[in-house]
Amino acid sequence: MSYDKKLGVIKFQNRLRYQHQFKDNDGVTEFDASYIRNKIELSYDNKSKFTPYLSSDFFFQIGGSLDQLRPKLGISYKINKKNSIDISVFNDIDMLGTDAPGPVLGLIYKAKL
Fold first, then answer.
1. HEC string for 46-90
2. Cα–Cα distance list, 112 to 49, 78, 81 (Å)
3. Among 60, 92, 76, CA closest to 11
4. Taking the alpha carbons of 18, 24, 29, 33 in that order, is the dihedral positive or negative?
């Protein structure tokens, strides 16, 4: 489910997602966990082709608690009405105290059909 609302030049988006996760251990696929993911995003909606945004994903493990955070900072470049490129940096913050890798750079190409 998703919802968005424009507040002047700021666009607020909220997305709720269910995720069922599996793990592959030496060719054996096992159930790992199920999550409810809530993503909140704020973007600066302007007339240029560049749209900066700030978001965070909250991972709630079913039967558990808040498991992981994923803060993200990025910019989207609109090539034309149907194509865009998204460049971002994010970090996975494990709330259970296990080590997580450092910041991750992301590059996404989006096409609308």
1. CCCCEEEEEEEEEEEECCCCEEEEEEEEEEEEECCCCEEEEEEEE
2. 16, 12, 8
3. 76
4. negative
Res. 28 pLDDT band, cuts 50 70 90? low
Specify the residue for token string 């700021």. 10
Segment 71-109, tens digit of pLDDT = 999 999 999 999 999 999 999 888 877 766 789 999 999
Q: What is the residue extent of each domain of the chain?
A: 2-21+34-111
Give the residue, 52 or 28, on which the prediction is more confident.
Answer: 52
Which residues have CB under 8 Å from 58's CB, separation 6+? 37, 38, 39, 40, 66, 68, 69
pTM for the full model? 0.81
Helix/strand number for the chain, H first, E second? 0, 8
